[in-house]
Here is the input.
Amino acid sequence: MTLAEIQGRRFAPRAGRLRLGLLAATAVATLAASGGQALAQSAQPPAGAATNAATTLGEVVVTAQKRVERLQDVPLSVAVVSAETLEAFRFNETTDIQYLVPGVQLTNAAGPRSFGFFVRGVGTSSFSSESIEGSTAFVLDGVVLGQSGASLTDLPDVERIEVLRGPQGTLFGKNASAGVINVTTSRPSDQFHAKLSTSWAWPDDERKISGLVTGPITDDLRFLVSARLNKRDGYIDNIFDGRKLNDRNDYGFRGKLEWTPTADLELTAIGDYWKRDAACCMFTLFSVGPTPSLAPERQSLAAGIVPSGTNQKQNIGGDVFSQAESYGLSTQADYRFGDGYTLTSITAWRRWLTHDGLDSDSSPLNLLDTNFSDFKQRQWTQELRLTSPQGGLIDYVAGLFYFDGKVGSTSVQVFPAVPAPFYSKVVRNEASTRNIALFGQANVNLSDKFRVILGGRALEETASATKRRFDPRFLLRDSASASKRSDATVWRAGLQYDFSHDIMAFATATSGYKGGGYDTNIGLATLPSVAPEKPINYEVGLRTSWPDLRLIFNLTAFHTEVKDYQVSARDPITTVYSIQSGEVKTQGVEFDLTSRPLPDVDWTLTASGAYADVKWGDYRNAPCGQSVTPTCPAPQQDLTGQWTGSPKWTLNLGTHYERPVASALKVQADLGVSYRSKMGMAFPNDPATVQDSLTLVNGAIGVAAADGRWKLAVFGKNLTDQVYNQVMFATPFGAAPGNYSQFIPYEARRIVGVSLDLAY
Here is the structure.
């Protein structure tokens, strides 16, 4: 569907008006909310606009509501990251999203199993339980991933990324109580095209290669194949044996077939595979208190390590490894019939496996050198939906969704120096989830300018878990199992008004639901039940376009209340994580601005920001979990009105400049600035884990062929060389006051490189 068709249907005059009673009855009958793939694409400017594409702002078209719409017409807070932005700064990993979209923060975790996103200050990592999912859904080509860590891959052939902020339960359903990150990869082309991208970066010899080939096989069959390789050295020096820790070795590929046997039927098949093999993810000492423990503090100090926020040295004798595989198959069928109806089916099967281990005592001593885990997850999903045409009194999307997922893990820990029951153990955990839902969403168009939004989703979810523990030293065994079924209904209601083609306002209220589960922590003998997470979000927004000024400005305000918010807390003495629940409130504003200030110059300015004031509600029974005992003298503390894990302020500024320097050459320059205010790094609000505000500067400058056949560029990330940590926690085996460790990510250093892109 073209932009002209969208505009024509959106503002088409109504043939007549039904009585209010019939209108209300029809609206109730079509209550719905849909979930699935969001797709954004550039479109041509509207008729009458300037035709110079280099100096005007083209429309952005999305399907965040399961149908093709202008981004400016969507009553949601949606941020879109283009492929051009990712390519300019060499951002091609999932973790880079946090540097591009304000209000999005990587969860405080180092390894793949504990990976996830915070949106608007809230989110859940699942590092303490295989059965607890993240609060931010990750969707890849229309398929929701049941485990957040499965999204921790490269992004080599991405067409665009959409970030939907706030609960999306009626639209995306599963594990979307904080938001959705939706990745859409490139589609096959009906013309032959090939692309090769290479880059090398200092200081850790980072080498990246990615390629793509696409084209027609027959008149109605097209293909696309992409591949990528990502390697670099480690950046943590291990004094004990000279190893370089926290390196990277990834590779993967994706293949697509797109077949249109008739004008009304389109079939797409996708297969992908990705693998990682790294010596990751090792932490370092941040600080040592007045009473350092035997391990690791005294061992590290004796080796000459100076604890600090910039410390990138370790002193361990055990293995450190992180291996992961992610692969899947999916098919999508789109059948158009009648006067604009579309029936869509998305069937997918995916699998994710990890094998990781860590020398948790972080010393040459063998206190816990044998500490590894094997994890496996598989899922099968089916979505069937019907999309109506637009332009009438009511337009809608309705459908069915089914999810069947299973996870299993085997963990091995050996404490040679601790002859106590279940310190040395082998633990086998299994968990399964089944979710079936009926959803739909409808717009009731009371006039050409005013519409009512009504949506709902009815779901049934079954969760079960089993734990088996074995102590090989004392020949002890124990086990536990549990299961439960829950029903829930989520809804969405709102009003939308178009002041003109270029100005729109909306107000919505949305509820969400993220299923509960069981805490399968290996240190526990039981399976504590975790309650479902239930948010309610209130949102108002203004969308404005100013064609004469070449300016787009969008503003959103929100207030969200989350009941039974799922969060993990770590006991520094036992190193055991446990699931806690509390009430959370978050409120704030978001803005996005894009401008081309000069009429005949290819110069783009962007600015976007978010303010999120997040606080616990009534949380007087929160755990302590911190090593500075004066701040939490009792086993519990009152965290009402406090928060940690995300900054209040995030801001992104960017500029792109391009000009020809010869008949066949052009120069391109990009600059980006990302800011976030200070934030606590560890629940439950340990004051010693507060990180100061952070500003990161990225840039690139290059020369390219005017026809796009090649580009040579120099790029830099974190140009001001800011060292920061992603995780901070009380040091294991050293939980005395003032003893803290940290995980410093690879990006926390100045990275400078050169890239070459070739296209045919």
Residues 3-759 form a domain with the Maltoporin; Chain A fold (CATH 2.40.170.20). Residues 20-29 form the longest helix (10 residues). The first strand starts at residue 41 and ends at 43.
